[in-house]
Design a protein that fits this description.
Length: 720
């Protein structure tokens, strides 16, 4: 989907419920906040976002009325809670209705890139060429899709951007095009590296317009569409936290302005919070962004003047760019002239501003100028904000909740063998056609117990060790945002169950550091697949059958936390209407009125949160040298149960399940490991290799290679 405005150009791609929600909210022309903005949708199928209507021209042909496809109007009913932090039905709520539609829809289907000057629908949507809205090139490309679709869409987008870059059709602005997702689980920046590095053409020199990457830590909306044209917004996530790359003041300033508009932060009163080393101290950073924001606010007139110029000139300039570029393409097509040989479209001379970024001739005064034009230590320490993106990857809520609830919900205590195979259970549809995922599933004691054991211990082992090994000393960008929602995090911290405390009590973090020390300082080869010696960290007094994660007293108040988890999830007002993903096995009711159902393994509850969620943790744990059968026992149990239902092998089955399995690399040697987002799927086999992988430019740029080539052409080198 794309939003184009007088002061900013934004694009989003995907046909999910989130796209429908934003189409209704941002496409509502009765809302003054949307005046002058243009909305585009780019989707694989137009069935959901296009509707046929009779054409005004052409009349009848052989008795058949001609028709044209126009964007579908969407109605969104929003359930606004008294507080998004604590949303329960006992508190008052109100209903708000949004009605809107995108201005244009581009269907890219199963297309492949085309050569020459012909543009695919996705390339048209990005460049604005042939778009009926005359909006010009986009400023923001946002993916609204399941995590499992991120890589395929990023590959499409990367190919389109490389081509448009070669044709000089990304726009004349020096402001970055933001590319991102509303839900940053599954290693979004890892997938972006793969997409852009594999698609980079040999002729690529550099980007004519800078690019930037972003992702949100949590999907901002809990929404569901059961009918085309209608979507329900059950609630909004209480916090909006974002990772952006590159890590600099300009990118953060652009991202805040554009994303505030996209997510309606002014209307909801929410604040965009940046993650990573530059974030606030409360999220493990050093407060760099807060300092920059204060500098911007204290700079007299710097924002206000440029915003006025932007509003006055942005829309007209965008129209002129699109029209001029369209003329050039038509001329090239008619005269067989290469687009690359044509001069780029030129903006009219304006005294202030660009289409979408505050840039004026008069610089701000000191100290704002000093703050905005210099780099903080945190920017230098993590220029790609890899730790901010890793925070989103490791702390996404869904991968914690969904798998554990699935295991508990689809268990038939009266027929364990049947439910073990594919999750088949009996269900009485008298009240709801399928079980309510949270209200019924999370209410089961096993769900709360699994969530507490996995999210309150095993995940924390990995978070603490990875953060110590990758983050600068004194920063805690990952562990500061452990767990799910803010209230639960406060409770865990109060009880002494933070990742740092769990890592220290278990002894696992120190053992991970010791292993890395041996491979670094002693040049000792820690062979891939070897696991740590648990006698060093468990002690001689611990029973052999006890694992690190179930050691008595390791998690403070574990039973209380399990009960609170089940109760809180099953009574959450934002979640109680969500139904479970099910397939009817036998719709013939039994004597007691029950039917047989099983989980639908094709849904994102499986495809996103298993291989692109829990498998990342297991992969990192294997890199750290943890014994997964001991240290990650419950995570491994959940993945093995779910993969059996999916008929996949993301991790090796339990020893003996496959007739005798003696291999130690539970993640690396699994048959379907390449379908996951575990680091091993990216070719990473050690913590050292992970560090090197994270140094790759996200967008495939060759900055260092260009510097080397320039050096080789220098006068000094020529004399050697």
């Amino acid at each position: 989907m794309a939003l184009v405005s007088k002061s900013q150009h934004i694009q989003k791609v995907g046909g999910s419920n989130g796209t429908a929600t934003l189409a209704a909210i941002l496409g509502d022309k009765s809302n003054p906040a949307n005046e002058g903005h243009v909305l585009r949708v780019a989707t694989r199928s137009g069935k959901k976002y296009l509707v046929d209507k009779p054409s005004d021209v052409g009349g009848d042909f052989n008795g058949v009325t001609s028709s044209v496809s126009v964007p579908r109007t969407w109605r969104c009913e929003e359930k606004r809670h008294l507080s998004d932090l604590i949303s329960a039905d006992i508190f008052p709520t109100k209903r708000i209705v949004h009605v809107g539609r995108p201005d244009s829809v581009f269907v890219y289907g199963e297309e492949k890139s085309v050569n020459g000057t012909e543009l695919t629908p996705l390339e048209q949507a990005i460049s604005g060429i042939s778009a009926p809205d005359n909006g010009g090139p986009v400023d923001l490309i946002v993916l609204c899709c399941p995590v499992s679709a991120h890589l395929s869409l990023l590959r499409r987008i990367s190919r389109a951007l490389y081509k448009l870059n070669s044709l000089n059709l990304l726009g004349p602005s020096n402001a970055p095009i933001l590319i991102g997702t509303l839900y940053g689980a599954g290693g979004f920046d890892w997938m972006t590296r793969i997409a852009f590095h594999t698609a980079r053409p040999e002729s690529f020199i550099g980007w004519n317009r800078p690019l930037a990457l972003f992702c949100l830590k949590a999907f901002p909306y809990l929404c569901k569409s059961l009918k085309a044209g209608e979507v329900t917004l059950h609630g909004r996530f209480p916090q909006i936290q974002v990772a952006v790359c590159p890590s600099d003041a300009k990118t953060r300033n652009v991202a805040k302005r554009v994303l505030d508009r996209l997510l309606q932060n002014k209307a909801t009163g929410k604040e965009l919070e940046f993650l990573g080393l530059t974030g606030q101290e409360s999220v493990g950073g050093d407060g760099t962004w807060a300092e920059e924001e204060r500098a911007l606010l204290s700079s007299d007139g710097w924002n206000g003047i440029s915003q006025q110029a932007t509003r006055a000139n942005g829309a007209a300039s965008a129209v002129m760019i699109a029209a001029r570029t369209k003329q050039q393409l038509q001329s090239a097509k008619d005269n067989s002239t290469s687009v690359a040989a044509l001069p780029p479209p030129v903006l009219p001379n304006r005294p202030n501003g660009t289409i979408h970024y505050d840039q004026q001739r008069t610089a701000p005064t000191s100290p704002a100028l000093d703050v905005l034009m210099t780099h903080s230590l945190s920017d230098h320490a993590d220029p790609s904000s890899s730790l901010a993106f890793l925070t989103c990857t490791l702390n996404s809520t869904n991968q914690i909740l969904h798998p554990c609830i699935l295991v508990a919900l689809f268990r038939d205590v009266n027929n364990e063998s049947r439910s073990d195979i594919d999750g088949t259970i009996p269900w009485n549809p008298v009240n709801t056609p399928f079980p309510r995922f949270y209200a019924d599933g999370a209410a089961k004691p096993e769900a709360g117990e699994l969530i507490t054991k996995i999210a309150g211990a095993e995940m924390y082992f990995v978070i603490d060790a990875v953060e110590r090994l990758l983050s600068p000393r004194g920063y805690e960008p990952i562990s500061s945002l452990h767990g799910g929602e803010p209230l639960g995090r406060k409770v865990m911290n109060y009880l002494g169950n933070s990742p740092r405390e769990l890592g220290e009590r278990s002894g696992i973090t120190m053992e991970c550091l010791r292993r890395e020390w041996e491979s670094t300082f002693k040049s000792k080869d820690v062979s891939e697949g070897t696991v740590m010696n648990h006698k060093l960290i468990r002690g001689d007094n611990v029973k052999e059958e006890e694992t690190v994660s179930n050691r008595q007293g390791l998690i403070h108040r574990e039973q209380l936390l399990s009960k609170l988890m089940s109760y809180g999830l099953s009574h959450n007002g934002r979640l109680n209407a969500v139904l479970s993903p099910c397939i009817i096995v036998d719709d013939k009711p039994s004597d007691d009125g029950t039917i047989l159902i099983k989980p639908d393994v094709r849904t994102r509850f499986f495809t996103d949160d298993t291989q692109h969620g829990l498998c990342i943790y297991l992969g990192l744990a294997e890199l750290l040298g943890l014994d997964l059968e001991i240290d990650m026992k419950w995570t491994l149990y959940v993945v093995r149960r779910l993969q059996r239902w999916m008929e996949k092998e993301f991790v090796l089955p339990m020893s003996g399940d496959d007739g005798g399995n003696s291999r130690k690399r539970i993640v690396s040697d699994a048959r379907d490991m390449m379908e996951t987002s575990a680091p091993q799927a990216f070719g990473v086999k050690s913590i050292g290799e992970l560090r090197q992988f994270l140094k790759l430019d996200v967008f495939g740029d060759l900055t260092y290679e260009r510097a080397r080539q320039q050096l080789m052409k220098s006068g000094l080198v020529s004399k050697l």
